[in-house]
Specification:
Blueprint: H1 3-15, E1 31-32, H2 45-57, H3 64-67, H4 73-81, E2 92-94, H5 98-113, E3 120-124, H6 129-142, E4 145-149, H7 154-157, E5 162-168, H8 180-189, E6 193-197, E7 216-219, E8 234-237, H9 281-290, H10 299-320, E9 327-328, E10 340-344, H11 348-357, E11 360-361, E12 363-365, E13 369-373, H12 381-396
Parallel strand pairs: 1-11, 3-4, 3-5, 5-6, 6-7
Antiparallel strand pairs: 2-8, 7-8, 9-10, 10-13, 12-13
The structure holds pyridoxal-5'-phosphate and (2S)-2-amino-4-(2-amino-3-hydroxyphenyl)-4-oxobutanoic acid.
Pyridoxal-5'-phosphate binds at residues 97-99, 128, 130-131, 168, 172, 197, 199-200, 220, 233.
Length: 397
Amino acid sequence: MSESLAHEAAALDAADELAGLRKLFALDDGVYLDGNSLGALPAHVPARVADVVQRQWGELRIRSWGESGWWTAPERIGDRIAPLVGAAPGQIVVGDSTSVNVFKAVVGAVRLCDDPARTDIVVDATTFPTDGYIAESAARMTGRRLVPVAPADLPSALGPTTAAVLVNHVDYRTGRLHDLPALTAAVHEAGALVVWDLCHSAGALPVGLDANGVDLAVGCTYKYLNGGPGSPAYLYVAERHQPAFDSPLPGWTSHADPFAMTREFTAADGALRGRVGTPDILSMLALEAALEVWDGVGIEAVRAKSLALTDFFLKCVAAYVPEGRVTSLTPEDHAARGSQVALRCEEAPAVMEKLIARGVVGDLRRPDVLRFGFTPLYVGFGDAERAAATLAEILEA
Ligand SMILES: Cc1ncc(COP(=O)(O)O)c(C=O)c1O
Ligand SMILES: Nc1c(O)cccc1C(=O)C[C@H](N)C(=O)O
């Protein structure tokens, strides 16, 4: 479209220290900008899953719970995710869906708060729906009131009646990054606990759970962590809260001695309290294999590339797309930007269909949002330029 932007893309790709990671993924010639919904497949994962099925399950059978490390996979893989979200070992367990972990975390936070005068569960009013639905149910179950508040208004909405706050780190629709350090501090100032949903930030930018004193957090692993469709989510319970963390789903695998099979429940120590039932081993070990692409990769470098990619994509869109056809919902300010660009466009459904037909895969968020996720491990600057050029051609036609 423009020689100069295409040249700029080539120069940026040539200078990109993460560019070599793309070959670790099974990708075609298309432009894949939907890794914020389903991350791409790391190429070595199928053989690893085949080994889990054929040898570990097929040959070792029941012995694999011990010999193949199945039983301890939730906490082992939690420790592998921990450095990506700024957590020391022993605070994350992997398992269940994000939705289920939201439930454990919100009810767990209200129980940790343990003050009947604190009647409110505050929820991000712009949240991904599942968090809102579950927070509402958690409020009913714990006899609390659900108070939806826009993240920007959170500090003024908090007070002596706040028990717990559930907020998304990055807004799934607009890509807005919320200020985790400041909001965590504001929640603590009000005497409440905070639960962060990291689905759209883990693996895309530094989170700093421990450094910011976050209480609880949840996240999925099938977006920027490339764990595969429906791969298990995770729950972070800060070490200081673990002794009092009272899970609303105390299954036998979170028991201190699961194989004692006692009638009474005695919670295990540490993050293991977040476990529930038998771990979904096939998905979990696919995730464990997928996480190997992070070996030697620093999240700071990923963040720098993510911002450069979204900046460059916005620049190409401004240069190519006819005036007035799209409006960016994604903040210009780096401090408030996640790893996606959301463009409002009147004809969004038809435009996304045409983009996908031309090999540029983004997401439609109805009614009028074109969503493009930038996953720095395998998306390059040439992809960003091509996506913007294709979008412009479609809008000009
Ligand atoms: C912020 C957020 N929370 C939760 C979920 C979904 O949770 P689950 O994995 O339980 O479907 C998503 C995406 O699906 C999400 O974007
Ligand atoms: N989890 C998904 C699924 O099972 C099917 C389709 C999409 C998803 C998603 O992850 C949606 C995503 N959380 C979003 O931000 O829109």
